[in-house]
Amino acid sequence: MIPIRNKKKTLQVTVEEMRNFAFAYVEKYAPSKQQLKTYLLKKYMKLSSSDVRKKRRQ
């Protein structure tokens, strides 16, 4: 069976991913609220920019 590579992520998957990133970051460091927001924003931007690149290649 061939896996579907370009399956669009649902909002629920994205929320779960961000939650996992947040928990991992809080466990490793002791960030302030603003530091956590900045970290998650950067993660989101990185993930969304890679999705845009994948769409352009097709």
Short description:
It is built from 2 helices and no strands. It has helices at 11-28, 33-57.
What does this structure look like?
The chain has 58 residues and is an all-alpha fold. The protein has one domain (14-57). 74% of the residues lie in helices and 0% in strands. The protein has helices at residues 11-28, 33-57. Helix 1 crosses helix 2. The chain is elongated, with a radius of gyration of 14 Å. The two termini are 22 Å apart.
Blueprint (SSEs and pairs):
Blueprint: H1 11-28, H2 33-57
Helix pairs in contact: 1-2
The major β-sheet equals: none
Share of helix, binned? over 70%
Oligomer: single chain
Number of strands: 0
As a percent range, the share of strand residues is: under 5%
Task: Using brief descriptors, characterize the structure shown.
single chain; 58 residues; mainly alpha; elongated
